[in-house]
Specification:
With 69 residues, this protein is an alpha+beta fold. Helices cover 25% and strands 43% of the residues. Strands 1, 2, 3 and 4 form a 4-stranded antiparallel sheet that branches.
């Protein structure tokens, strides 16, 4: 495992959100990504607020889009 950055992808209710440049431990052999506890909690809370809002929000580093039907 080595320190690096990754993108996390979340989907819910026909919407998805990507969080870019997240600090993580990365395995180059199997692709495992491990996000430290405090960082994971902050991201989880932020993404929950995005999905609760249910509207396009303009926030740096976050893409929030309606999935194509």
């Amino acid at each position: 495992m080595r320190r690096g950055r990754t993108t996390l992808h979340f989907e819910r209710g026909g919407f998805y959100a990507d969080v870019d440049n997240v600090n993580a431990m990365l395995c180059s052999r199997c692709g495992t990504r491990s996000v430290p506890g405090k960082t994971a909690l902050k991201i989880s809370e932020m993404v929950e607020r995005l999905f609760s809002a249910g509207k396009d929000l303009d926030m740096t580093g976050i893409s929030f889009h309606k999935l194509a039907s």
